[in-house]
Amino acid sequence: MLKQMGRTSQTVLIILYVLITVKAFEMEVIPAVRVVARIGETLILTCNTTGCALPNFSWRTQMDYPLGGKVYNNKTYSTLTMSPVSAENYNDYLCTVICDKEKKEKSVKVELYSFPSDPVIETTASLVVGETATVICKVHAVIFEVHDVFPADHLELLLKKEEHILHSKTFEGDISTKTETKTVAYSFNLATEDNGKEITCVARLQIAGMDFEPKERSTSLKLNANFGPQNTFINASPGNLSMEGHSLKLTCVTESNPPAQVFWRKHLAKETIQHFVENNVLSIPHAHFTDSGQYICEVINPVTNKTEKASVNIVIQAPPKNTTLTVFPSSSVKEGESVIISCTATGVPTVQIILEKKIGDVITTLKTEDGKYTIDKAQLKDAGKYECTFTNKFGNHSLDVELDVKVPPQNITVLVYPSENVKEGENITIVCSTYSNPPSQMILKKVNQEREIILPVVNGTFTLYNVTKNDTGRYLLDVFNEVGNNIKVIEIAVVGKLEKPDQILPLIIAFSCVTAVAIPVVAILIYVSRKAKINGSYSLVKALRLKV
Ligand SMILES: *[C@@H]1O[C@H](CO)[C@@H](O)[C@H](O)[C@H]1NC(C)=O
Ligand SMILES: *[C@@H]1O[C@H](CO)[C@@H](O)[C@H](O)[C@H]1NC(C)=O
Ligand SMILES: *[C@@H]1O[C@H](CO)[C@@H](O)[C@H](O)[C@H]1NC(C)=O
Ligand SMILES: *[C@@H]1O[C@H](CO)[C@@H](O)[C@H](O)[C@H]1NC(C)=O
Ligand SMILES: *[C@@H]1O[C@H](CO)[C@@H](O)[C@H](O)[C@H]1NC(C)=O
Ligand SMILES: *[C@@H]1O[C@H](CO)[C@@H](O)[C@H](O)[C@H]1NC(C)=O
Ligand SMILES: *[C@@H]1O[C@H](CO)[C@@H](O)[C@H](O)[C@H]1NC(C)=O
Ligand SMILES: *[C@@H]1O[C@H](CO)[C@@H](O)[C@H](O)[C@H]1NC(C)=O
Ligand SMILES: *[C@@H]1O[C@H](CO)[C@@H](O)[C@H](O)[C@H]1NC(C)=O
Ligand SMILES: *[C@@H]1O[C@H](CO)[C@@H](O)[C@H](O)[C@H]1NC(C)=O
Ligand SMILES: *[C@@H]1O[C@H](CO)[C@@H](O)[C@H](O)[C@H]1NC(C)=O
Ligand SMILES: *[C@@H]1O[C@H](CO)[C@@H](O)[C@H](O)[C@H]1NC(C)=O
Questions:
Q1: What is the C-alpha separation between 169 and 159, in angstroms, rounded?
Q2: Which of 124, 238, 372, 417 is 20 to 30 A removed from 449 (C-alpha atoms)?
């Protein structure tokens, strides 16, 4: 029996041993040792046991603060559910399990974090190239408030330009319980190429052993660097040298952010440009040579008010145009007057002006000054056709004018046939020649007569037929035209009677005339008249007609 008992107890011991060895009481807390929980989320701590049929669980915090969660006990494990996790859960939790008087406990440290929103980037009001730009990154950090970054002392703020880190800052040891904005600022000299580059602010939580997403949050902005205007120039299409009638397009090219406002001007032009201006393009559909000149485009950056100018010289080529040929005071002047012949034209390139005088086939090129030719004292030889030729490489044109120089009667020659002393019954012929322009008229009057006798004139020839003594006397020959007159006195004496027609030589009575140049119209009368006489035909007129 004892033996049996001993056997039995041996067996029980073995079984117990086996039981103890296989099913030893153990416990664990999940997660173990430490957990970092995000404020607002749900955190479940599990206290699990093995090897205990009826474990007695209890949860408490260090210093016995409220648990801040709900405990659910199951047979072999217990959970502590914190939903949502709040600042009061920042604590050490201890799970105690009692199993048949055996007591085991383990603790877990609950740390908290909050990272609910992205950081905010701010920049200086207007970013201007060449000036200092400051970029500020802010994270609002209030400890123990759900919507802020916590724990702020583990925060790192990073400022990046594209992939390049500009600046970074950690806030270790900065355990402030007050509301605080964690900022990082970086200043740099803004360059043109920075425009459009991405500035990123990264807020990073650096907690050892932390395993959650996101560990970092970031915000980016594209730099809007104001610059310019710079490198401004005008592009002329098809070019700065164009032909009249063609279209012309001027484009003002500039580099500016924001886009520059463009103003067009023309140098020395009184009014603003009337052509089609659309921002930076000025178009002239049909260029006129008067469109030549300096065009200026002025650009202004609306943010910085900086301006820049560019200009281009446009030459619109054209054949001679608007040609004029004027004679001052008139194309018909009196001898001795001053005359100005002037030729003007416009055209590009500069119009060459040639003034020529044409008399018959004789062409004389005159020396002009600015297209002007001055005759100080006009003479009959200056009369004639004047022609102005306007030439440039795109064409030519000519104008002409007839200059008339009026000359009063001069170099008057009076011939009396057969002589001033004739016999009764003879015929007296008075031939007068003169030089004038226009041709002169003549009147022959007998003076000291009760009634004035005006003798008819035919082609400068007066004839007194069958003279009597009564014809003796003084005769006045008035030679005149519209610009002057000249009077000659002729004494006729009728003596005795005509006996026989004899050979009579004509006598020339030349009255001196002190007037200037004239063109001979009637000349060499002696020979002609003599010839006429010899031929028995007394008509001097006829003779003259033959000659002229
Ligand atoms: C408790 O531990 C056992 C053994 O390790 C395991 O099988 C069981 O899933 C755990 N229970 C919980 C709730 O973790
Ligand atoms: C568990 O233990 C506590 C004291 O530690 C006791 O008050 C309680 O009654 C026990 N519960 C059970 C079911 O044994
Ligand atoms: C206890 O755990 C079992 C199995 O894991 C489960 O079916 C049961 O619902 C749990 N009871 C409680 C009160 O959690
Ligand atoms: C630019 O000019 C405008 C108008 O004259 C003015 O209102 C503005 O303040 C100026 N801006 C700067 C940056 O000078
Ligand atoms: C016209 O443009 C050419 C080059 O394209 C330049 O050499 C010339 O000086 C310009 N002429 C004027 C009048 O601007
Ligand atoms: C022609 O020239 C005159 C004098 O030079 C000027 O007054 C006139 O406006 C011009 N006409 C044109 C069409 O250019
Ligand atoms: C004037 O133009 C005509 C054709 O229009 C040409 O034949 C002539 O040679 C030109 N004269 C001059 C002097 O250029
Ligand atoms: C004078 O003229 C008339 C008419 O022509 C002529 O008949 C006459 O013979 C002339 N007398 C002299 C003397 O020649
Ligand atoms: C000329 O006069 C004479 C006498 O005086 C006269 O006989 C003669 O007919 C006159 N001749 C003419 C043409 O008048
Ligand atoms: C000449 O004049 C006088 C006086 O006037 C006159 O009486 C006479 O008849 C005239 N003689 C001739 C020939 O006409
Ligand atoms: C007119 O007379 C003047 C002097 O009497 C002389 O020098 C000049 O050559 C004459 N003119 C002509 C056209 O015969
Ligand atoms: C005057 O002279 C012109 C040309 O010399 C001649 O044609 C005309 O017939 C003459 N007149 C008279 C009335 O003889």
A1: 9
A2: 417
